[in-house]
Structure formats: C-alpha cells, structure tokens
Amino acid sequence: MDDGGIVGNPELLIKVWEILKVGGPPLGLILNPQKCEWSWLNPECSSACPIPNVPITPTDKIQILGVPLGSEAFTDDYVKESLLSITDGVMSKLMDFEDTQAALFLLRLSFGIVRATHFMRTTPSSLWSKQAEEFDKKVCHTVFQCLSLKPTPEAYEQVSVSTTIGGLGIRRIVDHARGAFTASWFEGQGVTRETWIKLPDKDCSDVYETQKSASSKVDVAIMSHLKESATLRDVQRLNRVDSPHANAWLSARPSNMDGSDCILSQKYFALLFPGYSVNLCPLPLSRVLSASKPWIFMATTPSAAESPAIELRGTIACEMSSSSSPIPVSSPPIWRSWVFSV
C-alpha cells in the first residue's frame, strides 16, 4: 500500500486508524504517524489532530498524489516548485548536447510538455497559467538554441505542432492544457460513477473528446492559421510538410515495408548551413532532399527533387548523400535541387 485518503467525521477516521493499527502489522502494514496527514475541511477549524503524532496540514495547502487541492496561491507555488525547479538545469544540458537530433528527441518525448501532463489533466490551467507560460518559454529557448537559429513567432508556431503535419512535435502547455483537463474530467466521472460540478469554460469544455483528439485539432488549427497568413511560397512549403510521411525521418527510422529502393544502408547525412555544417550521423535514411526556412525542414521525394529549376532562396539545404561522404554544397544566394542517380 502506498498512499490512501479517507474523508469522514473524526469518529469514523479514528475507528479506521485503530483498525489499520491493529490489523495492519500481521499483513506487513505498519502505520507511520509522522508520514500521515490530518486536515480539517473547514478552514476556520483550529483544533488539534485527535490522533497522536499525526501532523496537521492546513486546508489551503492540501495536496494528494501530487495534485494541489489548496488555495490558488498554493497551487501556483506547488506547480512552480514541481515543474520549474529543475527545468533550467535540464534544458541547459540539452543545449550542450553534441547531437541535435538526440536533444530534440529527448525534449519532445521526455522533458517537454510530457513533464506537465500530470498537472494538465488534474489541475485547471487557470490556476497555474503563469507557470505554464514560463515553462513554454524555456522550452522554446531550448529548441532554437539546439538548432542555433533565431526564434520567430511563426517558427515557434510550426515547431509546436505534431511531426505528422509538418512540425517538430514540441507542443506548448498553453495550447493543450484545456483539452487534457476536459478529457480527464469526463473520464474521471465515468470511473467514479459520479456527477461533478462543471468548471468554467476556460478550463473545461462542455463536450468530451479524448486528449489525443483534442490535441490533434489544436495542431490542425495552428497549421491552418500559418497557411492563412503565409506567402504563396510558404503555403506551398507548408503543404509539402503537411503530407503523410513527409516528416517521418524526424521521429523514426526508415522501413523497407514499402520496398527497399527508398533505403540507403549505412549512409551519412549532413545538415548544411551557409558557412558551416552539422556533424554527420551514420543512419540508414531514406533518399530525400530536404529544404526549408532556417527554422524547419521540408522533405521532398526524389521525383520532386528531379523537377527542374527548383529555387531555394535563403534556405537551408539538407541532403542525403549516396556515397560515404556528404555531397559538398556551396552557399550561393540561390541553391537549386540536386538529382540523385540510382
């Protein structure tokens, strides 16, 4: 037994304590009063705990299973301590990684928004909105430091959407907290078979949908907004990355499920920036030509790369070499596509 909570009048709680105290030891359950808590649900009650050696926890500082249930000020401080206390140290270590791809992989799956999922599903976001915004800012800074690129609002918008529709999957708490809490709120009522009082719309929607579905809709809305405000050339670029499997190379190794012609075993790739290049990484990668703005990559198929007169003005080229060393690329004002021979 790890944690448990019982709510009732003092007489009931004392009886439960005696039952556990007498019947627990034969089962290996030894009560530790110093690690237990007693809280009066009436914040104005100042009586001592009726059970010896059990400390009193003030009503406005109650937390159960890592979920703050006290005052708004306590909730904000609790989330700040739990979520942000080690963030700076973790982010600085990610920025020092020599392998940018590994750093972004860890940020996306372990040290980004996933660290806040517990609070997103259990605590209304309006109670810790400042901490959510601060965490998102730190993640944004880390992303662009890892890429050695200057952040722009449009860049971070696209970075924050799923890799399946053209982003890097570095999602933001402020975009997805409401959907996560809504899903948890409805699912919790189903598990407990209870009916709870509806929270304000800013924290919880009236309509249930899974967290995955809600996040997907947010991603699509962000990408649609980017396309609406983009230039004709950027719209074409966004449409290309918002295609099935266009960004699979960001999060998965290639597969021979669709045939072996698209896989080059033991090849190298390099991200070639004007003036310098990123270290090589020996991985079997699909034969693709990638080109993008300095803040995101666009993957095109070999047939698209063969199209004549594709001009990449002021962009970054990312190419897959068909030999043991990367193809040298100069950085003139206009880069054109390269054709890979089979």
Set down the secondary structure blueprint:
Elements: H1 10-23, E1 63-64, E2 67-68, H2 72-84, H3 87-95, H4 100-111, H5 117-122, H6 129-147, H7 153-159, H8 173-192, H9 211-229, H10 232-241, H11 248-251, E3 263-264, E4 268-273, E5 276-277, E6 281-282, E7 285-286, E8 289-292, E9 299-300, H12 302-305, E10 311-313, E11 316-320, E12 334-336
Antiparallel strand pairs: 1-2, 3-7, 4-5, 4-6, 4-11, 8-9, 8-11, 10-12
Helix pairs in contact: 2-6, 3-4, 3-6, 4-6, 8-9, 9-10
Mean pLDDT: 76
Which band does the percent of strand residues land in? 5-15%
Taking the alpha carbons of the first and last residues, their distance comes to 62 Å
Number of DSSP helical runs: 12
Description:
The chain is of the alpha+beta class. It contains 12 helices and 12 strands. It has 3 domains: 10-57, no CATH class; 76-241, no CATH class; 254-336, no CATH class. Strands 4, 5, 6, 8, 9 and 11 form a 6-stranded antiparallel β-sheet that branches. Helix 3 packs antiparallel against helix 4.
Keywords:
10% strand, 342 residues, 3 domains, alpha+beta, two-stranded antiparallel ribbon, disordered C terminus
In short:
This protein has 342 residues and is of the alpha+beta class.
